């Protein structure tokens, strides 16, 4: 069997334990808070990012890893592996996908670079599924073929805490922000073909949460969902309350709680909550 290198970026949301256990090569995104730049999960943890966002959320930014880091990584991997599989955050939101393609071609290392069209829990789940297929003895070609079906089978909804930060990041328009603030409207966001778009505009936070839970119920009734990720930008207690409610409602649903990756949380604000799954 071919020796496969697994490559991703820190938007995957995978635990350091899982990364180390499976020797996954993770390129860190850059988070800039209060004019100080940090490499995600190296210079600063997700929990520390969200603590800083409480005080310095205004103007916080993110950027992709320097291109040179991709080049160095693929130069090294070429000597140690036969092939590679790289899964990156949505190409509509970051340039990691394109940088990965360019760097692999520079070193003529055979890598299948896949645009996940998403990030956080769903991206990490794709990688977990791919590694499980490798353990089952599936061929490189079979693994790649299966992984390529996932981007169009993912769902991710966000309940952002900070519309002002979304406006600054360009994720929603100034007009949307002004009207939402004036009318006390909560925006529910979703990923659609790799882009973040407004799913619904709802008058109360409670109704917005019910809207998300209805999405989950609909998917569950269709048999599309067996595992659900609940992600939080520092709001861990609320995330566990959601888990408790959903676990009681759906006996066979596995619910995972994890931090929302800072690349998303920086733009949506401290306290943001999100749900995501890959359709069965």
UniProtKB/TrEMBL annotation:
User: What Pfam families does UniProt report for this protein, alphabetically?
Assistant: DegV
Instruction: Please provide, alphabetically and separated by semicolons, the GO molecular function terms listed in this UniProt record.
Output: lipid binding
| Keywords, alphabetical | Lipid-binding
Q: Which InterPro entries does the record cross-reference, listed alphabetically? A: DegV, DegV_C, DegV_domain_contain
State the protein's name.
Answer: EDD domain protein, DegV family
Organism per entry? Pelagirhabdus alkalitolerans
């Amino acid at each position: 069997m071919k020796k496969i290198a697994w490559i991703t970026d820190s938007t995957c949301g995978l635990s350091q334990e899982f990364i180390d256990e499976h020797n996954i090569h993770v390129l860190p995104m850059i988070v800039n808070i209060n004019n100080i730049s940090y490499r995600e999960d190296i210079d600063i943890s997700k929990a520390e990012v969200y603590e800083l966002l409480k005080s310095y959320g205004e103007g916080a930014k993110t950027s992709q890893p320097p291109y040179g880091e991709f080049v160095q990584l693929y130069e090294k991997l070429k000597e140690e592996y036969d092939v590679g599989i790289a899964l990156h955050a949505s190409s509509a939101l970051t340039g990691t996908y394109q940088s990965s393609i360019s760097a692999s071609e520079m070193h003529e290392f055979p890598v299948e670079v896949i645009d996940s069209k998403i990030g956080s829990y769903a991206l990490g789940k794709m990688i977990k599924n791919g590694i499980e297929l490798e353990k089952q003895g599936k061929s490189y070609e079979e693994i790649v073929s299966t992984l390529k079906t996932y981007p169009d089978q993912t769902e991710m909804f966000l309940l952002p805490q900070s519309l002002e930060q979304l406006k600054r990041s360009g994720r929603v328009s100034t007009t949307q922000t002004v009207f939402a603030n004036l009318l006390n409207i909560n925006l529910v966001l979703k990923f659609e073909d790799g882009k973040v778009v407004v799913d619904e505009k709802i008058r109360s936070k409670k109704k917005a949460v019910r809207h998300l839970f209805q999405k989950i119920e609909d998917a569950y009734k269709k048999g599309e969902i067996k595992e659900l990720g609940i992600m939080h930008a520092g709001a861990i207690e609320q995330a566990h309350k959601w888990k408790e409610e959903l676990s009681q409602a759906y006996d066979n649903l596995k619910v995972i709680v994890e931090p929302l990756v800072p690349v998303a949380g920086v733009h949506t604000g401290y306290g943001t909550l999100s749900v995501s799954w890959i359709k069965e």
